[in-house]
Description:
Blueprint: E1 12-13, E2 17-18, H1 19-23, H2 29-37, H3 53-60, H4 64-73, H5 89-95, H6 99-107
Antiparallel strand pairs: 1-2
Helix pairs in contact: 3-4, 4-6
Amino acid sequence: MVKENPDFNSxxxxxxxxxxxxxxxxINSKGLQYVLENSNADVNFKPTHGYSALYLAYERGECGVDxxxxxxxxxxxxxxxxxxxxxxxxEYVTRKNDQQVLRLIEEQEC
Length: 110
């Protein structure tokens, strides 16, 4: 299993991915929930040359909107930059006109 409260943000690959942000491409919603409840993964940490957790879950992840909802429930900040010059996650999904995700952002209680 996973050691108690591992630091998933400290293991970095070329300043693009941490263990946590890299896993967002392949993790399912149950796995993400487990990681967030049993580690110190920072849902708002963005590697220097990487993308935000919300963007990776939404655009590159296998569980998509389900994982975005879990990240938002764990206080992921949609007003943080997506990457280098793409604007915020809220601006990104607004440009895509994704009403489902915009509703999730509006309903966020963090």
